[in-house]
Every structure is written in C-alpha cells, then in structure tokens.
Design a protein that fits this description.
About 60% of the residues lie in helices and about 5% in strands. It is mostly helical. Among the domains are: about 55 residues, no CATH class; about 55 residues, Homeodomain-like (Arc Repressor Mutant, subunit A, Orthogonal Bundle). β1 and β2 form a beta hairpin. It is globular and about 55 Å long. The two termini are about 15 Å apart. About 20% of the residues are buried.
Length: about 180
C-alpha cells in the first residue's frame, strides 16, 4: 500500500469481509481479531484484484514500511526532516539503519537513497506539471540547496533539464507504485 487510495481499498475489503480493524496505514493494517484461513484467502484475492499484495514475510513487510515512510515524507509532508534520512528511518522504524539499508538493497535491488531521490524527482515532475510554482519555489519546497542542485539531480535522473521537461507535451511521470 503506497497511497491513500490503497488504504481506502484495504479498509473497504476488510469491511466487506466483516473484519474489524483498529487502523489502516500506508503499508499495514492493524486487525483486531484473528483472521481465519478462508478470510485470509478471500482478502488476498480481493487485494490482488485491486493490484495490491498481502504480505506476511517479515522482511517484505519491513521493506514496505521503509517505502511507505519515504513516500509519506516526500509526497504527503511539506516539512523538511530535521535529521538526515538515515536517522529519520532509524527513528521511525526502530531498526539500525545499516540493517534497513542492506535489507532494502537485497529485496529491491536499489539503495534507499536512490529510492528516496527517485521519489523526490517524481514529486518535482508533478510540481512542474502543475505549473503553479517556479523552479526556485520548487527547489525550496523540495528542500534543495539551490535551483542548480535541483536541475543537476533532475537531469541525472531524467536526462532532461526541468525547463525542457516543462516544454514536453507528453510528460513522462510514473505512478507511485511504478517508481
């Protein structure tokens, strides 16, 4: 689950199955009662139809929590973290960052940093497409030290300058699930 709509789908499917839950957050659902095997199978099938996967492997769950924390930070929070990303994840997930980084790389095949920067660039693309902020405002909103830093990183990830991207008619943006 990497977006608000995913949370809504999970809540809806839990309610259809009559399963009571305390909370459904991005990446996890806290269900009050024990789930019977047939309920679990029905939930899994319903979630798959919606493009979601039910995870019960502890490593996969932790990787999803890492992804969710980064996605929430980049796409749903305007606050700049007061510490570096490694400390933020360590505090949020209560795991040693080296363990998190090694696990993430092992499971996803990319580093946490690259995943984070990829999402920052996707958010920058979104802000460019909306055309409500200029590059200076976008750099500030996305916590870049300068427009030059933003532009360099944008070109490194997309092969285009932000201004060239803005001129494209067919903007190449991915969904959060694809990033």
């Amino acid at each position: 689950m990497v977006c608000i709509r995913c949370q809504m789908v999970v809540k809806s499917e839990l309610e259809k199955l009559g399963l009571k839950y305390i909370d459904v957050k991005i990446g996890e659902a806290d269900i009050i009662e024990n789930i019977l095997p047939d309920q679990l199978a029905k939930l899994d099938l319903a979630l798959r139809k919606s493009g979601l996967l039910l995870m019960d492997n502890k490593k996969s769950i932790l990787v999803e929590k890492i992804k969710s924390a980064i996605i929430e930070l980049v796409h749903y929070t305007d606050e700049q973290i007061k510490v570096n990303l490694s400390d933020y994840l360590k505090e949020k997930l209560n795991y040693d960052y080296t363990y998190l980084a090694n696990l993430f790389s092992e499971v996803k095949g990319i580093t946490i940093e690259k995943f984070y920067l990829t999402h920052k660039i996707e958010k920058v693309k979104e802000l460019i497409v909306y055309d409500e902020l200029n590059l200076t405002e976008i750099a500030d909103k996305m916590h870049y030290s300068s427009v030059a830093h933003l532009s360099n990183q944008f070109k490194k990830f997309t092969g285009l300058t932000p201004s060239h991207f803005k001129k494209l008619k067919n903007k190449r943006r991915g969904t959060l699930e694809e990033v």
